[in-house]
User: Fold this.
Amino acid sequence: MKKLLYITNAISGSGGLERVLSVKTKVLAEDFGYVVHIITLSRAEDGEDQSCKNNLFFPFSEKIKLHNINVSGNLFRYISQYVSGIRKLVSEINPDIILVCDDGLKAFFLPKILGKKIPIIYERHVSKLVEVSENQSVVRRLVTRGKFKLMDFLAKDFTRFIVLTDGNKNEWKLPNLQVISNPLPFFPTEKSSLESKRVIAVGKQSYQKSYDRLLQSWSLIDKEFQDWELHIYGKFDENLGLEQLAKDLKIEKQVFFHLPEKNIEEKYAESSIFVLSSRYEGFGMVLIEAMSFGIPCVSFNCPYGPSDIIKNNEDGFLAENGYEKELAEKLQKLMKDENLRLQMGNKARENVQRFLPKNVVKQWDELFKRLE
Assistant:
């Protein structure tokens, strides 16, 4: 049986990368017969053993073998522990293929750290735009530009460089580039009735998810929809002041903020519309999750992901990125027309099946076999 080794920072969180790894490695181990190992990193001061399955937000298959490298101290000590720990575990595991799921710069050096005797595949789960922030200084822009050039140079060393959408391909000019989407983590037997007056958004509070723009859009929704509610699930960031913004916009009675929900499926099933207000995405896992429940989605057409997932005017709506009034109008269109919600929801549930694990993981299996 082929041995696969995934190298990532952590798998204990509630983010999209962790959910994808839990789904993908389970299918690879249990359905395709691969022996799967995962190496994670943790700082000693964090006190959290990444190799302990009890610490994980998402369930990982019991067949997965977890390993952890403790890193600590200053930058030079951190790098030394990282390099020596990776080399030691790779030597012990002796994998047939290595897969890197780490969006940090250090991951790009792994082919040079490990040599090229074993095929090494890089999985890019975010857009390059994650490195760009609002109102960057000139110095910061130059640093970011230099980082991009270094990443472009090092990315050529990987056997394959995987991105999630056709849009993401525009960020990388590489001969080893390939697109493989994320798999759908579940496909429920029952779909949402779409009868509730409830809109849902899922994702941590951050500049990327731009809930500030979502709240501005919600404030533009006509008074006839005052009985509708917006529920946002994701890790809080008090520095963003979203609760205060909701109060300032006088929509606090309609908007509800919730911590990450392990049983997010239940919340999808209770909702009638999904909204994504991101400034940029790597893919948009939450879109396909909502669509699996037959929920039509409204999203900014941000780079990259939504336009690869949503078929505009068929199973959902795309609004021009940043146009808050248009996002509000698309939401209202679905809010006032239950038949349209049902029509689009049925198409969403039908169209999203192209992301079922059996279809996506099969592409990985075919890639691994080509590397034999």
In short: The chain has two domains: 3-183+356-370, 198-353.
